[in-house]
Amino acid sequence: xxxxxxxxxxxxxxxxxxxxxxxxxxxxxxxxxxxxxxxxxxxxxxxxxxxxxxxxxxxxxxxxxxxxxxxxxxxxxxxxxxxxxxxxxxxxxxxxxxxxxxxxxxxxxxxxx
Amino acid sequence: xxxxxxxxxxxxxxxxxxxxxxxxxxxxxxxxxxxxxxxxxxxxxxxxxxxxxxxxxxxxxxxxxxxxxxxxxxxxxxxxxxxxxxxxxxxxxxxxxxxxxxxxxxxxx
Lengths: 113, 109
What we know:
The structure holds two protein chains of two kinds.
Chain A: E1 5-7, E2 10-13, E3 19-24, E4 31-37, E5 44-50, E6 53-57, E7 65-68, E8 75-79, E9 88-95, E10 103-104, E11 108-112
Parallel strand pairs in A: 2-11
Antiparallel strand pairs in A: 1-3, 3-8, 4-5, 4-9, 5-6, 7-8, 9-10, 9-11
Chain B: E1 4-6, E2 11-14, E3 19-25, E4 32-38, E5 45-50, E6 55-57, E7 60-65, E8 70-75, E9 84-92, E10 96-99, E11 103-108
Parallel strand pairs in B: 2-11
Antiparallel strand pairs in B: 1-3, 3-8, 4-5, 4-9, 6-7, 7-8, 9-10, 9-11
């Protein structure tokens, strides 16, 4: 069964540094998403991406965050200047259409020191 | 505010029991709903979609009540492997998926 893959599985970064989280969505999916889950808290929507542009973003997704689809397969989340509170599990997801269920990658654990 | 509310539990039930979770949503414009399951420190995995007509998948039954703005999940004949956190999800604006905080279920022998 095709799956969403994320790398790295764990990223440790110093506060203030930039970090890029990578995702390869399922190949025939058109919508891509990033979520985060702080330990012990709920899954929070960050951003959705369709047709090479952001289609929705939450209040969490501020100017520190950006997303990109640099080629036909990768979908990246960049955090420009990381803060301690950015420590969380980041999930990438994709779906064939917007209202269809999303398939999640197994996440990148981001630890900010 | 687009919110999905769930009873966090925990629900502790014996094997073989029937257990039901409810979830309420505040935005009537929500277009579709799903139940996801999340094991500890793992990604959410789709359990089933939720339709107004109700849908069943083996031991699992999901129901949507638009008039009262709630979604339910019924698990019959609980197995140990059903132990997980169950996430209620509503979709807004075509692709803004909002998760509830999850209901934790532990099935005991």
